[in-house]
Every structure is written in structure tokens, then in C-alpha cells.
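Suppose you are handed a protein chain with no further information: no name, no annotation, nothing but its sequence. What can you learn? This example shows the usual starting point.
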Amino acid sequence: MAGQGGSVYRKLEEVVGCKWSVSVLLAVGSGVCRPGALERHIAGISTKVLSERLRKLTQYGLLEKHSFAEVPPRTEYALTPAGAQLVKIVKQIHDLDSELHPRPS
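A reasonable first move is to predict its three-dimensional structure. Written in C-alpha cells, the prediction is:
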């Protein structure tokens, strides 16, 4: 994230501040790696928003895109080491929230 120009904090703010970015990162981190599967997995996301988020997260160095020269063409996304670290932090924040605000049984 740091070597891409601009402030790391600004990029983090855009990523974490966007519910779709966090949802995409968590989905890819859980093994959902193809755009169509991501669209089905993330309730409410549009194709346009998903494409934009995938592009931005790749630019920020959180995802890497793998294109396969097949018919039909296939594209998959994976977390980069920085993306995996961010997902780990997001999960820790979720765990903390669950600890501070337990759901009634």
C-alpha cells in the first residue's frame, strides 16, 4: 500500500470506509476468487461497483489479479501479503466488536 503514491492513511480510509471494499477483501480471503462468484457471494453489490472495487484494491496492492488465456477467459483474484494483513486486522476489529457488544442468546 505504501509504494503506490499518496498517503497510506488516505488509502486505508477509502478501503475501510467503504463497506464494499471490506466485503470484497473478506470474501477473497475466504476463498471466493472469481468476479461472478464474488457478485453472488456479496449480497447487494452491483457488477459496476464490484468491478470498480476490484480495480481499486488491485491498484492499492491489496489484491492481485490473475488472468487465464482460456475460452471463455477466466479471471481470479487473490490477497497480496498486504491484503492478508489488512484482512487479519479487520477480523480482529470484528472480534473486538463481538467481545464488547455480545449478541443476546
